[in-house]
Amino acid sequence: MRIIYAQSNGVLAVLAPAPKFLETLSGTEEEKLIHIANKDLPTGTKYEIVADDVIPTDRTFRNAWEYETGSSEKTSADLTADELEKYNMKENL
Fold first, then answer.
1. Do the beta carbons of residue 56 and residue 4 sit within 8 Å?
2. What does each C-alpha distance from 73 to 28, 60, 62, 76 come to in angstroms?
3. Is the dihedral of CA 81, 85, 8, 57 positive or negative?
4. In terms of C-beta distances under 8 Å and separation of at least 24 residues, what long-range contacts does 36-40 make, across chains too?
């Protein structure tokens, strides 16, 4: 599974998580990807989790790919205090 989202410049991005990192997380595959979206995407970024076969394999017109929101669209959120501590990140107050 992959995370797709529109970057601030409007270009579609595909986030493919590292398998070794996924193994360190608990929960379902979708819960793990939601965690990664919250960790790696700017807060408030709209994204969707899609199956690998949704991503076109022909890279010829890669910059022409478009992202249309669907019913499963999610919005990235801030990491919890426990998650910030795990990644050795501190909130700036």
1. no
2. 18, 26, 21, 10
3. negative
4. 36/3, 37/3, 37/5, 37/74, 37/76, 38/76, 38/77, 38/78, 38/79, 38/83, 39/79, 39/83, 39/87, 40/15
Locate 27 and state its tokens: 């929960």
The count of other CB atoms within 10 Å of the CB of residue 30 is 12
pTM: 0.77
Q: Which residue has the tokens 């998580």?
A: 17
Residue 57 neighbours by CB distance under 10 Å: 6
Residue 81 has pLDDT above 50, yes or no: yes
Give the pLDDT band (50/70/90) at residue 91: very low
Check pLDDT > 90 for residue 88: no
